[in-house]
Structure formats: structure tokens, C-alpha cells
Amino acid sequence: MKKILFGLLMLFSVSSFAAPTVEFETSIGNFTIELNQQQAPITVKNFLKYVNDGSYVGTQFHRVIPGFMAQGGGFDKDMNERSSYTPIRNEATNGLENLTATVAMARTSNPNSATRQFFINLKDNDFLNYSRSSAGYAVFGKVTKGFDVVRAMAQKPTRSMGSMQDVPVTPIMITKVTVK
Q1: Residue 166 is part of a domain; what is its CATH number?
Q2: pLDDT digit string (tens) for 22-37?
């Protein structure tokens, strides 16, 4: 009996520390992000709020720059901006770096302005990390499956739309988001 209880306790302990993953289904394929709650708790909680309320569904990757990043989560197919919750504190000092396949929060020039938009690094972007001269961009996860889909985004033709540049000609839509 003690062995069974110990085994169940160990199973519960290990599973309670498992990193949450989020699967994105898009109009060009699927990818999965593993979230880092340990090092980016505020950012992960914020991101999951948008995932769980369903508000990423029907948004597009509206800024895709080959050799840099793919940004999404903030605009619908007609480039109408979606409403956001209150901005969060920048967690760019968490030790995570903007490396290939990592996911970070987009923001304005105000370091504490991130809301719903995120981006996926297509290469190592060291200049986006926190430093003495830069507030940085908070990394909170990594694409662990389907990075080929993200790379494929960067192969799609883009255009300017109003003040926005690097907008895919054919919208790359988020059609479903599931926490695993």
C-alpha cells in the first residue's frame, strides 16, 4: 500500500510541474508551443487568458518578416484590431533569450505595454534580449512541434496595408487554439 501511495504521489508531483502546451491550428498548418510558467509566470498567465477566452481564434499572423519573426494574435482577417486586457509587466529579465523558435510578447516602445500580440523568432535575435541598454522582449515559450509551419509563413508574399508593413497577401489565420 505504501508503494502504491508513493507512486501516486510521485506521479502527481511530476505531472503538476509539467509545462503547459498550446496547439495552434492555422490556415497553413499546426504548431505547438510549450510555455515556461517557471520563468515567465505573468506572461504565461496573460497568454493563457487569451487562449482560454478564445480570442486568438479568427486572428492572423499580420507581420511576417523572413529571417526575423512572425507576429500575430492582434488583428482579424480584415486587419481590425482586437480588444485587449490590461497591459502586463515586462518579464524580459527572466533569463530566457530570443532564440530560434522561441515565443515572446510584442509591445510598443513602452516596455510594460504587452497585451495580446506575440511573435515567434525565426532566428536568434539577440538584440531583442534584455540588456543594460534595452528593456528587451519577454520570451515565455518555445515552438516544440511544427516549426516548419512557422518557417513556411516567412515564405509567403507580403505587402503593405495602410501603415502596416510585411502583412501576408493571403491571411495566415489562427483557426483553433487548444491547451494540451
Answers
A1: 2.40.100.10
A2: 999 999 999 999 999 9
